[in-house]
């Protein structure tokens, strides 16, 4: 009998106290009545229009920012890995991606207000130089589109950071072999490159989805509580029980864990698949 | 290949435009506080605000405490798992990835319910207790980055041989960790530390819900009430993030090479 496991006890105790137990408290609480008995009523209560619409808009923003983040991230990563750009451009782009993917939260909201807000730089330039009033055209930073545009500022760099190693793993030989067999560029991408890349692309998508689904600070600083997305609803609930039902608050949080859990599960499963090719 | 390169430049140029515009816009906006002329007034107001100084100092101290506790927790654990419990690695990987799966707002919600004044460990009952709780929360947030950085650093050194060599010279576990292992993974620890600093300094959700006077909630409050100062704050916050990432780049030049490359 070895006692080597005792060495990780401090870590396990820490994880138990400040990660596992608090999460379990939420999960258990969402299946409890006020008196402590088991119930599914809290989960069922989630299916009321106001909460469903909060989940729905959260999911839509996360889908849109993950899809666009993945797409643009892929294009930019492709451009400097395979697109024939000079080598010096790679390192500053990756460093900047590291900075921007961590530049989320309150300051990011300020930056976009100062740029795309009603008196922002881009808004004024478009209005005064080109005669285009984007707010007159229905654009609003405090909306689905505005929040998605803002989230892309950290989503695209994150996608670049994850996709670049996958593109680095694409071997020249594959392309040459395909060309010798008579494949066109399009056929190479459709038959060879894309089937190899899709697990890491889809995995990136899942990670980006979870990343924006759990984000609170940017949305809160940008919209206050005018846009009812799940994290903001939960924030208001924790502060002042706006749902007037503490256990519904637990269920709301539990729903968030389920959504991000599924997204991350897909990411981890697909990463294991994509690593088979990248040795 | 020529058309490829044109497209490449186009994508990169678009990306640069998208990322540069908000930075330029913010900087320009932060200079506009005085009518009809650019000035640094907004910066002067922000930097001179005593609440800026207090909350900023609070978050800096919080970040330093988080880094200290995180290093004390992560380095011995990662070392021990590499040395004695290699079959635990998938489990540890899973545990340290969990903070990315469970949103911080859910974790802090759990803290509030679990450690309130009527519980067995009433941490939120006092200011000091809440500070400690917030610090532990930040250690949880930093865990994925910290553990990964240190584990990668440990991979580059021969842990077993170093340990045996130190033991045969009579070193105990504390000496091995502090004087043999830590210096060897110093670069990884520093990278993790700078990233932790960048995350903690502007963190909003946990500090706001635990009602601590941190920099993140201060920024949010200023944003809700002022026009030009928030832009100045955003520029300052961006420079801090940039500084942390630049320091990571600088220290990683000193990283030891993986063993197979040292011939």
Explain what the structure shows.
The complex is a heterodimer of chains A (279) and B (263). Chain A is mainly α. Chain A has one domain (47-274): Orthogonal Bundle (MetI-like fold), CATH 1.10.3720. Helices cover 72% and strands 0% of the residues of chain A. Chain A is built from 12 helices and no strands. In chain A, helix 4 crosses helix 7, helix 8 packs antiparallel against helix 9 (185-213) and helix 11 (230-240) packs antiparallel against helix 12. The longest helix of chain A is centred in the N-terminal third of the chain and has 33 residues, at 49-81. The mean pLDDT of chain A is 86. With 263 residues, chain B is mainly alpha-helical. Chain B has a single domain, classed as MetI-like fold (Orthogonal Bundle), CATH 1.10.3720.10. Helices cover 77% and strands 0% of the residues of chain B. Chain B is built from 12 helices and no strands. The two termini of chain B are 38 Å apart. Classes of the chains: A mainly alpha (279), B mainly alpha (263). At the A-B interface, helix 1, helix 3, helix 4, helix 5 and helix 7 of A face helix 1, helix 3, helix 4, helix 5 and helix 6 of B.
- In round numbers, the mean pLDDT of chain B is 88
Note the overall shape of chain A. Answer: globular
Report the sheet with the most strands of chain B, covering strand number, pairing sense and barrel closure: none
In whole angstroms, the N-to-C terminal distance of chain A is 37 Å
User: Helices and strands of chain B, in N-to-C order?
Assistant: HHHHHHHHHHHH
Number of domains of chain B: 1
Counting helices, strands and paired strands, the structural category of chain A is mainly alpha
How many domains of chain A? Answer: 1
**Fraction of residues of chain A in helices?**
over 70%
Subcellular location (chain B): Cell inner membrane; Cell membrane
Family (chain B): Belongs to the binding-protein-dependent transport system permease family.
InterPro entries (chain B): MetI-like (IPR000515), MetI-like_sf (IPR035906)
Pfam family, one (chain B): BPD_transp_1
